[in-house]
Amino acid sequence: MRPASGPSRDHGKLMTLDSSGNMDVRSRKDVGLLFEPGDVVVANTAATLPASLQGLHVQSGQDIEIRLAGWVEAYDVTRFKAVAFGAGDYRVPTEHRLSPPTMRPGDRLRLGPLRATVQAVLDHSRLLELRFQGDRKEILAGLARHGRPIQYAYVPKPLELWDVWTHLAAEPIAFESPSAGFALSWDTLSRWQKRGIAFATLSHAAGISSTGDPDLDQRLPLDEPYEIPPRTAAAINKARLQGNRVIAIGTTVVRALEAATCSGCVVRSGLGVARNLIGASTNLCTVDAIVTGVHEHGESHYELLRAFADTSVLESMNQRAAAEDFQAHEFGDSMLIERQARAKRSQAV
Amino acid sequence: MKQHRTDLRKHLPTPTLSGLRVAVTGGTSGLGLALVRQLREGGAQVALVARTEEAVERVALETGALGLVGDVGRKEDIYPLALQLTGQLGGLDVLINNASSLGPTPLLPLADTDCEDLELALAVNLVGPFRLTKALFGALTASAREGRCAVVVNVSSDAAVNAYPHWGAYGASKAGLLHLTSVWNEEAKSLGVQFLSIDPGDMDTPLHAAAIPDADTSQLKRPEDAASEVLQAVLQALSPQEPEERFQSSLLGEPS
Question: Which of the 8 DSSP states describes residue B46?
Fold first, then answer.
């Protein structure tokens, strides 16, 4: 499928799959007409950090790019999990990027105005834990000045923060955009409000989605901190109790809500860390439907969709999407996938 | 005024500045500086934004506010400011768009005003507040959804409504801001974000001195007095609303 080559001002397309397997294609601006009174739509308010940092590996004198990829401790900006790349930038596809020099604990990095030390090499030679010098204010100022949004070669124009923040973006904790949120506008939210559809949010620190290295990509998604406000948990639990649906805007919302669901299928509010992997064998406890981008076989997001529908259904959606010229990736078109008659299947097992 | 509300909310906590997360643009002189000082005295978490690094550091050091250097009239500064503001304060409850540009000084008739000076007044007084508010709208609405309420104050002027000769660039930009505030308030009500336009009156500030160098400053309002009026209005906006004024709770997913 063709990747969307940048942020777009038009509405894009939306493919829908209802719980009985019926497929439809419409304009994404119609998303405000979907769902039923009493349903609750849940979105992620994470804003995206400028997590790509060009700089120098002091010990070798070589240029590098560091992509901040995850939190070591929730929202402590002095420590990050990060992926190292050799010299170059997003214009070279990640799988063709030069390797970084060998990194060892104690190595120093100069990243524009920022100074960092390799604290540890994690379970892959390019996956590092970094410690940044300075306090929160200095580090955020350095990121604001020097960091660029993480981007991939299929988007030729350099991205700005305003391209990667969704309308809901509130706190800068994500390393890549919770991009399903690009499907939402304030106009859509007001349509839902008028139709009695509840809207609630959580924050989930979406990590890096791809590195170009198959070994490294297997370790994704990394652990991701999230926070569910009490009102959001209450809205979801109420909807479920009344037999209404919970619709997640994006994979991050699914991951957070399923991680926060405890026994009896009740969502708990508060801070947590999502360590769960969602796939074909997951019995979704809380989420009934997902709005997401177009994902293809082999991506971790595709694995997550298998919790909603079988591969054969997902493949026929993708065939239809290709025929309708859907665009993939974070600035592309959208899909709404309702969980397929799951209960029957799990009873059968 | 609005005294009749007192009974309705006597069982509810009176809002205070303590713990509020507030951003003030143009926070190093005049009304902005007085606002930063009073907010800090009231226990608010404050971020101030201004263009001059030395002034920002001086006020940050004096008040304990977070100082951010940036120019709201520059598009490129807006998101880096939004990133640092929300990253440092952990969200935002109140945004005070106070930074203003007079346009050409000494003040000139419109026919003598360079287009660039009009553009600058619009950039700082109208487009800047629009951009910054838009970048922070996610944070403000998140605060409202969490039940904290959210307020945007746009500092206005009587030049927004009266046709004062020589105040054309400034007046046109403030008139635009006034209308922007009204429309945004209508649109954002249901999201729990209130927009206030406040005309602080003629104050003894550097901006006034630049506009009218020979003014009798003893006749001018003290910025400290104007600041406390602005903060009273903010607290009033934050106080619990009468039931019919409450935004629809279904949007918030409030437990019923």
Answer: E
